[in-house]
């Protein structure tokens, strides 16, 4: 038979669209042509495949070989099509039975020796292959990743010879096995934070309602320490959430700790594509790598303003769409933003010892690096004050992360039982249903919002935070104290008094 078809998978965001590798052998001058919108790496596969077949003691046909990667309008990149191309040539030339390729999908890059190498975005391909009802063959280097999706029937091989022996029925391939279980050792504990009762309280509220948080205060007051403890207060990932996180890291080729919430901490020199993703073949950025976890932006005003502005829509919608001339991709980014900043360029605005030498104009320009629309999307603005030396003396009696996480878990459970989502995700219409307020509370809130000059978006965010405060106390209705405390988290213009 001079025609063979092998099924494989391409990359398109977190999806893995099917690709049919069609191989046809015909008479004419020997040569190999690849069509179907292949990138450079795919075009170079003809040299890798030729050497791999010869070094694996197969015959490379001295005929005209045409390889079509269908559908033709889908861009194909990387070396993931090496293995299906090699198997298609072997089946079309009769060196392996073409019938053995039925019900099979495969991806993998070939070395010149015939060894199989791993590729990125293996997990989306494994999931799509299972849903298509086919068996999956891939490199052993990708086996542990494919095994994260247990329903998939994934087989692993070290080289092309092993794959061919399996297809000929001589030596079945072993199944993919998950790696050793990851033991989650929680080294970062909230007990390490001395003092800071207001900031600790805000961190608990942010964890319970999945609210965005801005910490501002002088250098060395523990803003980074507090932010790094947030993941220790969050509930463990469910199986579906862990799979979502693994998908993003698989596409990005980033290391993954299965079952742990991501904590991403990009440097303030990061570009806009580094945060939201990009490239000619779109890849996820930091906000998508922080999906289901925490994105921490330290020294927030030091980020370029255009970089910060790209966060506005992802914060609202929980998804980012990257459009390029050749490809488009959607990446989820339901992250919790925690930012930290100094109150002024020198960092000591409001210090009673007079260490701040910044002029009002310098402070205005410094804070002007942050746009109002971005600050409006951050639910809580919390001052972090310096601690006194006597607070460092003796054993710490602060609550541990486990103690606070228990209250956070109870509040989240109450919210999900009531509305099926976190408080931060409530829409304006859902706020009317789940956060009803009395006439007097409405008038108080309206007066406060008018005095502080806050927007309707801020009104909704105050109600969401108040709803979380009530959930932490296991109360069904919002109290006046909840509204007052929630409003207290909306002011960034207060000087820090030691």
Automatic annotation (TrEMBL):
The keyword ATP-binding applies. One of its GO terms (molecular function) is ATP binding. Transmembrane segments: none annotated. SMART domains: AAA. Residues 209-388 form the AAA+ ATPase domain. InterPro entries: AAA+_ATPase (IPR003593), CHLI-like (IPR045006), MCM_dom (IPR001208), Mg_chelat-rel (IPR004482), Mg_chelat-rel_C (IPR025158), Mg_chelatse_chII-like_cat_dom (IPR000523), P-loop_NTPase (IPR027417), Ribosomal_Su5_D2-typ_SF (IPR020568). Keywords: ATP-binding, Nucleotide-binding. Pfam families: ChlI, Mg_chelatase, Mg_chelatase_C. PANTHER family: COMPETENCE PROTEIN COMM, MAGNESIUM-CHELATASE SUBUNIT CHLI. Belongs to the Mg-chelatase subunits D/I family. ComM subfamily. This is Magnesium chelatase family protein. It comes from Simiduia aestuariiviva. The lineage of its organism: Bacteria, Pseudomonadati, Pseudomonadota, Gammaproteobacteria, Cellvibrionales.
